[in-house]
Protein 1
Amino acid sequence: MKNIIKYKSLLILSLVLFSCKLDLPNPNNPNDGQILTSREGMISLSIGMKQVYSTLALEALTVTPGTTSREVKGITTFTNIIELEAGGSALPTFNGNINTVWSRMLRVMGMAEDLITQAPSVLATDNPMRSGVVAHAQLFKAMALGGLATAFEQVPLQTDKNGQATFTTRQLALEEAINLLNQASATLGSTTPSTEFNTRVLGANFNLLNCINAYKARYNMMAGKYPEAITAANLVPSASASQFVYDGAQSINPVFTQLRIANNYGPRDNFGLPAGLFDPADGRLAFYLQGPVVTVGGEALRTIRGFAQANNSPIPVYLPDEMRLIKAEAIVRSSGILANAVIEINAVRQQSSGDPFGVHANLPAYTGLVTAPELLLEIYRQRCAELFLSGLRLEDSRRFSRPAPPTNVNPVPSTFERTRNFYPYPDQERLTNPNTPPDPAI
């Protein structure tokens, strides 16, 4: 895979978006060496990495797996969207959406790797700035690796400018993401980032340590490391609120772009879940969805609300209640005290106020059987509602052993809860990298 990051464009984008004045001979035409060898270049690349993830990468992680897990329906006549909506074994390797998920995650990874490699020497005399830049890059590389692992069976742990990256299992990719997050925690623990880093790179709405711990909890859960998932989740304050912020002009909310401006996708009613997996009284239905039901292709669609109400609506980096549901799931899967899992479930179900983002289920307490299978089903139900269109449904559908599509049916009937298990590897990768693994059957 080729690390084709356009440093000049990204740096100029960062300058426009964030008014970073570079102390360079020609700030309108910096070369790659200036970006990777100057203090201002490190700062601007950090800003650009976050911007690329919050717009391009987040869009790919939201709408593509969101279509496959049937949270949204592709409603335009673009071939790539029609193919994705159909899913099944005939999903072609040249599908544009699949390539977008792959290439945008690798783009973020490459940017993060350059920061991790270069910042220690470039910022050798500025420990507070170096700490922030490195930990921030470690977080975003972990996020990109985790994003790839939700969509593909095997992924590279490192980009390769010569297009010869090697692949490893998604389990090892998750473990590498966790390792990066542990390193990020240690980096912050050794040196507190500077006020300049917090102001210029993070902004007022992004708590780096909370985000690191939240993603550590998420990926430990996905990797089957249950005690570690609980430990990390307990470190995230329930009132914490880190967000990706958009100005509505030069940076636009990517979900709003796809579901409200381009109208390429429409959110399915009832979170796209079959009967029995959603509660009509759930307050999160009104939070995430609005307007009358419109029938398209025999399916009931609504208008997206939630975190895509306007072109400048912020999107949470994570939702605090995900931490409660991670703890509940980890307790059940590790044969812990089930009553403690019920406590965490009820903290999500019964919440009617206090969530920093206003996501309130406002449901009565759980009354089902207190057994591992029933509690896992309830946790899945709550995750589908709480984390609607967050890019996690496809991963959750597999982890909770929801019905998989058959390998011999295409297009997949609408009764299936997901139309693929994993995506095929894009042609762009296979044609240039002989290390690309065989495609999964479905």
Protein 2
Amino acid sequence: MTERLILGGALLASAETPLKVDWGVLIEGRSIAAVGSNEALRAEHPHAEVIDARDLLLMPGFINAHMHSYGLLAHGIPLDDPPRGFYEFLADFWWPHVEDRLDHPMIKAAFALACGKMIEAGFTSVCDVLEAPNSLPGALAAEAEVLKDAGLRGVLSIEASERLGTDLGRDALNENARFVRGHEDDRLIRGMVSIHTSFTCSEGFVMLAKGIADDLGCSIHLHLSESSYEPKVSLERYGMSPVEWYDRLGFWDSSVLASQGVATDRSEIDILAERGVRLVHMPLSNCEVGGGIAPVPAMIARGIRPGLGTDGYINDPFEVMRGAFLIHKGALQDPRVMSAETVLSMATSWGAEAVGFLHVGTLAPGESADLIGIDLSFDTPLTKGNVLDQIVLYRNGSDVALSIVDGTLLMKDHELLTLDMEEVRHEATVQARRLWGMV
């Protein structure tokens, strides 16, 4: 088996472990075989292929635990009348002008752009939720083709709802089921079932989706209380909150991945924690749609370990981490909440747990060889005591120079090796013009 030795200037195996100076990683095939001092690794493995990254800090790659890649085509889309609220954003703009217009060329162009930008910024894994009801069938296969070429690790799904009718919703569920079955033995690409919300899905539809996921033994994803709109509608329809409604249905368990969770109170958080529900936090996009600020510190205090996602909005993991680090301090008027260690864990090991990736999120023997290298040219000295703050607060995606996923080099010396970004950006521009109705 081929050995590849990555010599690092420093190594951070996880947010919970101390910084090691002049340490590197030995990769055998797709897995990490050893971590240790550069000197020891070179002496023990003299014939290994060497990548000299001694100007870089080696660390686990970031996990984008919730992404809508198609949303990149809507960046900068003209708005004659900005939406006045969350539901208006969906009903008057996002659904008719973005989601319902998507076809396979648009989806592939957007996903290629998203994958390239994610690799360049330090993401090694992504959980992408497609929302394109008129793109069936074959939409997920189109995304998977792009993901395979890019080399990222990913979980893919298409969101199912009854917004455009139950039949189309069932078609989306079937698309997810076919994709899950077709990728059961794939190391890098998996599927899951995905539904929208309690206000676009009936009780029968929700439980049909859960039954399919249970039969397949896969995760099921949904958006949960992204703003006060869903709790308001749920109270009017069912006399209870969305969390309580799903609980009454027997929906919640550890197979469920819930994104957002903005408008949830402590009693709902208790239910989610007791049922073992996994969550993902999107601090920046929650602000963009006026949804609010999720009670993430309370979730963590209750034992939930949320991942971090970009939602397809701002796709630099460092900016998202800074958002999570700062927003909650301001909201709670407490600088002690959301430490750099917590936030970096959310972006790496907790994110891997949230989306169900095993052996990802830390650098240790036996783990998958998913890692990145960040420029060590910090403005101030890097120490064992400040490394987490230096990463979370003072680095950016442009500082990532090296990316390896499953033992394969995706980027070296800032050069993307799996995608031609000039071609990718050109095609994204072409497809964005189509989406915007400019051609």
